[in-house]
Amino acid sequence: QVQLLESGGGLVQPGGSLRLSCAASGGIFGPNDLGWYRQVPGKEREFVALVNQYGITVYATSVKGRFTISRDNAKNTVYLQMNSLKPEDTAVYYCNLATTWGQGTQVTVSS
Question: Who's near 52: CB < 8 A, 6+ residues apart?
Fold first, then answer.
């Protein structure tokens, strides 16, 4: 049973950067797509970014040009580099592998 563990969240000022990591244990990524999602209280979880086994990436319109997703299959880790952060990026960020979700990491963008 694969487990996912996110890290790297925190408090950052508008315009700042954070790098989230998601490490898998108990299994390997394999050919699966890897995704990042986010959720704020009272709202549906929303898609942020995805990277497939070939390194092809897809981004939500709201983060395109600011966020970069990448994967390191040797380390079973997926990353989300977040630049030019805005207050509306504040959320709990979750990584996803097939039907498995991590526990989430809080990102707060505030001055």
Answer: 33, 34
Short-list 96, 81, 92, CA closest to 29: 96
Give the largest CA-CA distance in the chain: 40
Structure tokens given for 61: 């319109």
Query: What is the per-residue pLDDT for 82?
Result: 98
d(CA 23, CA 20) in angstroms, rounded, equals 10
- β-bridge partners, 78: 22, 71
- State how far the Cα of 6 lies from the Cα of 23, in Å rounded to an integer: 7
Q: Which tokens hold the place of 63?
A: 């983060």
pLDDT tens-digit series, residues 10-54: 999 999 999 999 999 887 788 889 999 999 999 999 999 999 999
Question: Within a 10 A sphere around the Cβ of 83, how many other Cβ atoms?
Answer: 14
Model confidence over 83-93: pLDDT tens digits?
Answer: 999 999 999 99
Torsion, Cα 88 92 95 98, to 10 degrees, reads -100
